[in-house]
């Protein structure tokens, strides 16, 4: 499995790619794709990085696992392929955008258009076995995505990090809050959205902050 990743990321993550844990991770993932049904499709594992160049990153949203249903995962956290029914968390994200910004809920749940505007949609684990949530956790993806977050924190400034739920918040502990804007709330899952995700106004707050730094806001 070739690691296809935008040059701006490759340069910064080369050290991770050369570490023993990453070699073992790739061997594990290759074997899983050969012997199991795994999502997202192989060519989309690193889509978050291909769709959003390091130099363009303005916002980071941290998810946990890719979706594990047929045809759902497309390499961007919370996003699904065109024509696929939106999972409940994504519906709740769009509901909050509608409430916060007055934008209608779109027909497509593909968030590539966010990525192309500088939103890194990063899952902590980049692959998952079909119908088996968490199946690729603790195999090496987490240290890799930790390194991604730390690299953004160290090398950039004025990035907005949206940390929804305790898992993302823990993963975001490495972020330097003195030069980045960190927004935290409950997760958009139906089990927790009513406990602080709805009404968090993260989308308008993000745009207000970007504007204040002279950066173009996101068309959510």
Brief descriptors of the model:
two-stranded antiparallel sheet, 8 helices, 220 residues, 11% strand
Short characterization:
The protein is of the alpha/beta class and about 220 residues long.
Report what the structure shows.
The protein has 8 helices and 6 strands; from the N terminus they run ααβαβααββαβαβα. It is an alpha/beta fold. The strands form 2 sheets. It has a 4-stranded parallel beta sheet with strand order 3-2-5-6. It has a two-stranded antiparallel sheet with strand order 1-4. The model has no long low-confidence stretch (mean pLDDT 96).
What best-fitting shape do the alpha-carbon axes yield?
globular
Helical element count?
8
- Average pLDDT for all residues: 96
Helix/strand order: HHEHEHHEEHEHEH
Rg over alpha carbons: 17 Å
- Count of extended strands: 6
The assigned structural class equals alpha/beta
Q: Which consecutive residue ranges, at least 5 long each, have pLDDT under 50?
A: none
Per DSSP, what share of the residues sits in E-state strands of 2 or more residues?
5-15%
For the sheet with most strands, the description reads: 4 strands, parallel
Helix content: 25-40%
Assembly type of the chains comes to: single chain
Distance between the termini: 33 Å
């Amino acid at each position: 499995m070739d690691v296809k990743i935008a040059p701006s990321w490759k340069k910064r993550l080369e050290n991770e790619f050369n570490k023993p844990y990453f070699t073992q991770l790739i061997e594990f993932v290759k074997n899983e794709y050969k012997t199991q049904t795994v999502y997202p499709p192989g060519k989309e594992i690193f889509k978050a990085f291909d769709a959003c160049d390091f130099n363009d990153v303005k916002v980071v949203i941290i998810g946990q696992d890719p979706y594990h249903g047929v045809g759902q995962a497309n390499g961007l956290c919370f996003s699904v392929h065109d024509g696929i029914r939106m999972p409940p968390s994504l519906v709740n994200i769009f509901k909050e955008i509608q409430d916060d910004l007055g934008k209608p809920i779109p027909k497509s749940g593909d968030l590539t258009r966010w990525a192309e505007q500088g939103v890194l949609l990063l899952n902590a684990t980049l692959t998952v076995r079909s119908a088996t949530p968490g199946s690729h956790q603790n195999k090496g993806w987490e240290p890799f995505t930790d390194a991604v977050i730390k690299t953004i924190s160290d090398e950039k400034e004025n990035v907005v990090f949206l940390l929804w739920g305790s898992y993302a918040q823990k993963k975001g502990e490495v972020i330097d809050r003195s030069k980045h804007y960190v927004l935290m709330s409950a997760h958009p899952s139906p089990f927790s959205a009513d406990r602080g995700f709805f009404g968090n106004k993260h989308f308008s707050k993000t745009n207000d902050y970007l504007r204040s730094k002279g950066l173009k806001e996101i068309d959510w």
